[in-house]
């Protein structure tokens, strides 16, 4: 999300505010904002209890199971999460383990892990592999929405999808919030309202 969408907002801020300097870290690591001296961070999912931090929801994203028309022309389309065991599943790897795909079945959460021939620790690479027809992937809406609209990817198992997750700005509560940080957050909310860029139709 950072490279695809937040960086565009930062670039606009740098143009608008010539005196602004930004030090950006792109990482999936859960940083300690206070101990490591960060002004703010972007996180996805429900907030964790931490009285030292404040949070503001700026958008929502959904994990979407998908495959390319090429893959679906060569394999039967899965009708339920259980059918994924018969497919090449492209999983994201974190900390040496496959991250499960979560579905909603009969109002209960179901986690599925079916390792295929290809796993990796890059959502961008998983995206490219799914478009190339190498298997089924579950990827964030902010990564693949353009390809869903263009037909490069097809959503699967939509009726089993989990609810959308909040995308939040996190910042320390005890640190004085500088006017530039406050304005950065306000401008991000404004830019992503009424819907974030990946939900907006584009003629690109």
UniProtKB/TrEMBL annotation:
<dbReference type="GO" id="GO:0003700">
    <property type="term" value="F:DNA-binding transcription factor activity"/>
</dbReference>
<protein>
    <submittedName>
        <fullName>Transcriptional regulator, LysR family</fullName>
    </submittedName>
</protein>
<dbReference type="GO" id="GO:0043565">
    <property type="term" value="F:sequence-specific DNA binding"/>
</dbReference>
<dbReference type="Pfam" id="PF03466">
    <property type="entry name" value="LysR_substrate"/>
</dbReference>
<dbReference type="InterPro" id="IPR005119">
    <property type="entry name" value="LysR_subst-bd"/>
</dbReference>
<comment type="similarity">
    <text>Belongs to the LysR transcriptional regulatory family.</text>
</comment>
<dbReference type="InterPro" id="IPR058163">
    <property type="entry name" value="LysR-type_TF_proteobact-type"/>
</dbReference>
<dbReference type="GO" id="GO:0006351">
    <property type="term" value="P:DNA-templated transcription"/>
</dbReference>
<feature type="domain" description="LysR substrate-binding">
    <location>
        <begin position="2"/>
        <end position="192"/>
    </location>
</feature>
């Amino acid at each position: 999300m950072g490279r695809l969408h937040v960086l565009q907002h930062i670039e606009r801020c740098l143009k608008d505010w010539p005196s602004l300097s930004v030090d950006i870290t792109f990482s999936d690591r859960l940083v300690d904002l206070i101990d490591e001296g960060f002004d703010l961070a972007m996180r996805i999912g429900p907030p964790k209890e931490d009285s030292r931090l404040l949070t503001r929801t700026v958008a929502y994203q959904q994990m979407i199971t998908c495959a390319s028309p090429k893959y679906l022309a060569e394999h039967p389309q899965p009708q339920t999460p259980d059918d994924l065991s018969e497919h090449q599943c492209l999983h994201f790897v974190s900390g040496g383990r496959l991250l499960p795909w979560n579905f909603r079945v009969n109002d209960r959460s179901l986690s599925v892990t079916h390792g295929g021939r290809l796993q990796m620790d890059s959502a961008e690479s998983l995206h490219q592999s799914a478009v190339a027809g190498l298997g089924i992937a579950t990827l964030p809406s902010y990564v693949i929405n353009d390809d869903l609209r263009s037909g490069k990817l097809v959503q699967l198992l939509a009726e089993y999808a989990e609810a959308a997750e909040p995308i939040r700005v996190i910042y320390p509560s005890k640190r004085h919030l500088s006017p530039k940080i406050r304005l950065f957050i306000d401008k991000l909310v404004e830019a992503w309202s009424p819907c974030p860029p990946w939900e907006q139709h584009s003629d690109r």
